[in-house]
Amino acid sequence: MAVTTTYSLAAIQGQIVANGYETHDQFGSEVVGLSNGGYAVVYGSALAGNPFPLVTFYDADFVRISNFTIPYADGSINMVGDPEIIELSNGNVAVIWDSAADGDVLGAIINPNTGAVVHSEFIVDIFAVDGDPEATLLANGNWIVAMSSGSQIYMQIMDNTGTQVGGQISTGVGSQDVDPAITALNDGGWVVTYTDADNGGLNDVIIGKVYNADGTVRKADFVIGASGENTASAVAALNNGGFAVVYDDTGWGPDGISLHIFDAAGTDVSGFIRVDQGLVNVVNSDPDITVLDNGFIVVSWTDPGGAGNILGRLFDQNGTPIMVDGTTNPFVITSTVTADTNASISAIMNGVFVNTWTDTNPDADGDSISSEVNEITSTLTSDGAGDLMQGTALREFFFGNGGNDTMNGASGNDFMDGGLGADTMAGGGGHDEMHGGASGDTMNGGGGLDEMHGGGGDDFMGGQNGIDMMFGDAGADRLFGGNGNDTLYGGADRDRLYGQNNHDTLFGEGDVDVLFGGGGVDTLNGGGSGDRLFGQDGSDKLNGQSGNDFLFGGNGNDTLNGGSGNDRLRGEAGQDKFFFADNYAQDRINDFEDDVDTIVINDNLYGGGLNVAQVLATFGTQVNANVYQLDFGGGDILTVFSSTGVTAGDLLNDMAIV
Length: 658
What we know:
The protein has 658 residues and is mostly beta strands. Strand 11 and strand 12 (153-158) form a beta hairpin. The relative contact order is 0.06. The protein has a 17-stranded mixed beta sheet that branches. Helix content is 2%, strand content 48%. The chain is elongated. It has a domain at 510-658.
């Protein structure tokens, strides 16, 4: 028994112009994936040599919400370096930039769903800076900004209102410490990296420092890279509690990209890993790093010495390269006719990530910012012997082939094909699609909007949470909607359908089916044979359709429509409506309640032109004290039974004609 797993890169949103403001040059973008499934881009824009930051938001369908948001109040701002953006614990985003106009590091908080500024321009810190503030969200819900003063790195903790929490934290006085990067660790601490651009006259090196949640030092300054000139570090926290650092490294000759993996204590557990493997004699630069929900690391960078593309490479949390589309070499994220620079990357959710960069193929007014959304997916293939196939947070494609397989999908939007054998499938979170095959399969959707197809065999389907669609197909199937507004199709053979909670729609389809609405306002449709429909709780609609059906409304104000065939209708509790029309054959209402229930007849039974009293007089017969019958001819007979008695006088006020 064996399962083969392969990985692929798929474009979700192709390259677009990401900046909503198109006048003059745009530069220095940073991107953040949002918990709502969208992303936000901050970038600089040059107006008459006076740079300023702008923000553009995209929703979960990657549609631009608004052209741009101006996060600052001072129209004379002169931004230094590139701006920064992060998502806060309450779902808002914080934008941070440094202004040469007053020497401050400033920030603003914006609602990503509307683009409205929630907290306008506030001070993060006050001193002359070299630029490029970097920020990260801490485990306690606060956030922290790292900044360079030219000689040392300062950090300032902030809350969700843009208020400073405590005083400055310094890495210590250096001679020329610049270009910080920062990430929060799972245990509440954080790690900061930066370039020591002096280093006693030697090559530039990357320095790291690890802090505890209370701001005390966990591990003092340590050198990350020590061969060649090392600059432009980026850092990301790992799911296992450690962190990964990537940076420009001339030690590979020419410029290359290095990666190191550290544990939570700051111990290097990987050594040097060359990211741009296979790109010899090509200058690579501007690395950035993000971590997908399953823990995989994606590093992206530009190759200005090559074709000018944005490239990427995938690693596990140990730093082992992952094969993508058949190779462990770098893959092309985007390829354009001119050089792309200053790439930024951010995970969105599951295996989806977004890149932005400065596109030197300009629009009419200068350079622009481009973005592209891609996804890492995995395919799990069984050898046909009956395997356990365990998914991750990625979007996965499962192929069981032969054997009785077990497929567990986790949180991605998964596709499962059981193939031959009696398979067990669990979608987990995400919007999943399942196909059972020829045998009796078991499917559980979990969360998300799931779609299940039983195929042949007697299948079991459980929707659990989410809005699900189930197709029993052939076989005597059992379908359970669970929570959510579900749609269930029994298919051929004798099926049992249970809507359960919320507002469900059930279709028995072929053969003799049993349908249970459960809670909520449900619609039950019997199909082609003699079905049993039970509305249960809620004000339900029961449609027997063809065949000799039994309809039971249950609690609530139900509508019962037997359709063609000799049907038996019981409204049970509530103010129920019973519908009867031409070619409905012989229906019987078994529990009519005077001045409570309503009988609705279609005038196509007799050609129209009569009121209720005339219909009763023309077609009605008092069979006995408890039974009144309407015989419209042609085999259409409606029999009304009431345990307390029923007469034409009772029906006069309880009948309607449509």
